[in-house]
Design goal:
The structure holds two protein chains of two kinds. Chain A is an alpha/beta fold. Chain A contains nine helices and ten strands. In chain A, helix 5 packs parallel to helix 6. Chains A and B meet through helix 2, helix 3 and helix 5 of A and helix 9 and helix 10 of B.
């Protein structure tokens, strides 16, 4: 087996006295789509935020493409150019139009000329069918449209891996599919992705690997058929049972 | 046994039964409004008439006195001088005063041979303009009767509906009667206050008004005051530009991150505490007089004007830094997370994402501080800068009349109020651009 693209080894993270990640281990190979599932507060979002250094880890090690990206001395701004993240609450910049949101980082961080960045932004917006909204402000878009723009904003940096943090949790049900369709396209194009998600049906469909997180560790991992069809651990089984009871799987 | 039901009939406590009650016709409100309208508009007429009389300018003439002699004019029995006069070369003097009893007394020095005397300035009819304005206002006060009468009419129709046992329409009409009466009371209160104002201004035969509003003095000194006020405008425009930049720098220092930022933060807090805690006028005094004496190269040769700008910048920079800080801290951390996750550095995140949003939020409190700064330019007169307040005080001490100061007050009012409206408009326009229409 080749070395994994993202390798997370024995990662610990505390928020004050709260021990959130308790020696988490996870590996993501290139072009893999890995879905993190698990109950609220199990550390899914924290793990994603640690990978691109939005949170500092308190123990263990995170490597991307063989290069250690945790700990002191890491150029986080360089790291984040390779690691895109999309948040549950979109976090578009409300004072900028859609295209300005997408162009900001390519111009200011990558140093692209404005025309090049604009071309790139329009190309991406066209791909998600929002080029007509390029000059609108985020608050005038639906939640689904905002989240699609947020995905494009991350993609405009040309990341090598995308971290998606429950990106459909804040959306009305009828808007979920328009966002998931984009993620599906990205998966088909071979984008390496790590998703924290509650959309079990979607995880089952696109994931190369599903990891069940509980109390800050990966309790069980495997191909989706195995995790959803024949879970080994009691905790995984009871989690999936409550999902099914709520009619979400 | 299962859990208790949670429908309302089963809730603990006695059930509340609502009965249909006979509605009131609100006749009391209507009559009250009518009585109030009679009293208030009557009072307004009285006040306006008194005001018109007090506006009347009369005069008395002195003859056969030593030529070229100064004298002083008092109201009969008063100890505060009203104005000064001078016997002309032909041995006469005509003094313009409001109607009433006046005394001409010898001046404090050098009124040789002038005998104190009492003179009477006859009552006059006053100007046609004053008559027109006060009459128009008086007629306007009759407008109070409109809602009062409407209220009475609605109340009577409510009574008719009630006699038919039509409770729904009774309630509707009674509510109309109540609302009309409320209008009457609201406008009545405003009319009463305005009428009291006119009565106050006309008190003591115009004696209250004259110190503040002597129009002849105002028109004569308007140019001088306006020239001096240009200095105020220059000071606050320059200081505001500095404050905008300086305040932001201090706010960013105040928010400097990490352990390395601690001394910077401490310094920023110290500066803010210091200059926010000291009265602006003392800062102006200390900087101007102190730095001039200190003999620092270049700095000590500054004009008073620039020391004033410096002192106001330092004082208001402290206020505005805190306003900026509040704005920056009000931007949700998820915006910073999003910007940092795109690879933007901390300064760039501030520059492109946080500060632009913060500035939009702090515009109203920023305007507050700027209006404060504009008004505090009137303090720099204490270090010898000839600005409007200083100039007006000079005029006051020459003329024994405050009208020039009233004019300065009015000038400040004239520049601050339009700013507030302009900022309101700009904020609305900006929000209309960014916010959803729904």
């Amino acid at each position: 087996m080749t070395t994994p693209f993202i390798e997370i080894t024995e990662v610990h993270k505390y928020f004050g006295p709260n021990h959130v990640l308790r020696g988490t281990n996870l590996a993501v190979a290139e072009h893999q789509v890995v879905c993190l599932i698990g109950p609220s507060g199990c550390g899914k979002s924290t793990l994603l935020r640690c990978i691109n250094s939005l949170e500092q880890i308190d123990g263990g090690e995170i490597c991307i493409d063989g290069d250690r990206v945790s700990g002191p001395g890491v150029d986080v701004n360089r790291l984040r150019q390779d690691v895109g993240i999309v948040f549950q609450s979109f976090n578009l910049f409300p004072h900028m139009s859609v295209i300005e949101n997408v162009m900001l980082a390519p111009v200011k961080v990558l140093g692209l000329a404005r025309e090049d960045a604009q071309g790139r932004a329009l190309f991406l917006l066209h791909r998600i069918g929002l080029d007509a909204k390029a000059d609108e402000y985020p608050d005038r878009l639906s939640g689904g449209q905002q989240q699609r723009v947020a995905i494009v904003r991350a993609l405009a940096m040309g990341p090598r891996v995308m971290l998606l943090d429950e990106i459909t949790s804040a959306l009305d049900p009828e808007l979920v599919s328009e966002v998931l369709n984009i993620v599906r396209d990205l998966a088909e194009e071979g984008m390496t992705m790590l998703l924290a998600t509650h959309e079990m049906g979607f995880a089952r469909e696109v994931a190369s690997k599903v990891c069940f997180l509980s109390d800050g560790i990966v309790l069980e991992e495997g191909p989706p058929e195995q995790i959803f069809g024949d879970p080994q651990k009691d905790r995984t089984r009871s989690f999936l049972r409550s999902i099914i009871e709520a009619g979400r799987l | 046994m299962g859990p208790s039901p949670i429908t309302s009939s089963a809730l603990p406590g006695a059930p509340v039964r609502r009965a249909v009650t006979r509605p009131s016709t609100r006749l009391g409100y209507a009559i009250g409004a009518l009585v109030m309208a009679v009293l208030v508009s009557g009072f307004a007429w009285v006040a306006l008439t008194a005001y018109r009389h007090s506006l009347a300018v009369s005069s008395f003439t002195i003859t056969g006195e030593p030529k070229n002699t100064n004298f002083e004019v008092f109201r009969c029995g008063a100890t505060t001088r009203y104005k000064t006069g001078r016997i002309q070369a032909d041995g006469t003097a005509t003094v313009s005063v409001p109607p009433g009893c006046w005394e001409a007394r010898p001046g404090a020095s050098g009124s040789k041979g002038f005998e104190a005397r009492t003179a009477h300035a006859p009552r006059t009819t006053g100007s046609a303009l004053a008559l027109a304005i006060t009459t128009a206002l008086g007629v306007a006060s009759l407008g109070l009767f409109y809602p009062a009468v409407r209220s009475l009419r609605s109340s009577r129709r409510a009574r008719d509906a009630l006699s038919r046992d039509d409770f729904v329409n009774t309630r509707i009409l009674a509510e109309q009667a109540r609302q009309s009466a409320s209008y009457a009371f609201g406008f009545g209160a405003a009319t009463l206050i305005i009428a009291l104002g006119f009565l106050f201004l006309s008190a003591a035969n115009g004696g209250v008004r004259t110190p503040f509003f002597r129009f002849s003095l105002m028109t004569a000194k308007f140019g001088t005051i306006l020239d001096a006020f240009a200095t105020n405008v220059k000071i606050f425009l320059i200081a505001e530009a500095f404050v905008l930049v300086w305040g932001l720098l201090v706010a960013i220092a105040r928010l400097a991150p990490g352990r390395a930022g601690r001394p910077v933060r401490a310094l920023a807090i110290f500066y803010i505490d210091l200059f926010r805690g000291v009265p602006a006028v003392i800062t102006i005094y200390l900087l101007d007089l102190g730095l001039k004496k200190a003999g620092i190269p270049w700095v000590s040769s500054w004009d008073d004007f620039w020391f004033a700008v410096l002192a106001l910048t330092l004082t208001y920079g402290a206020y505005v830094a805190e306003v900026y800080r509040a704005g920056i801290e009000s931007i949700h951390w998820s915006q910073t997370a999003a910007a940092r996750s795109l690879g933007l550095s901390y300064p760039r995140t501030l520059r492109y994402v946080v500060v632009p949003q913060a500035v939009r939020r702090i515009i109203p409190p920023l305007l507050n501080d700027f209006i404060g700064l504009q008004k505090d330019t009137s303090l720099v007169g204490f270090v010898g800068v000839v600005e409007a307040f200083n100039q007006a005080r000079i005029i006051n001490s020459n003329e024994f009349n405050l009208s020039a100061l009233t004019m300065v007050a009015f000038l400040f009012y004239v520049i601050t109020v339009p700013q507030a409206r302009l900022v309101d408009y700009l904020i609305r326009r900006d929000q209309a651009k960014m916010r959803a229409n729904g």
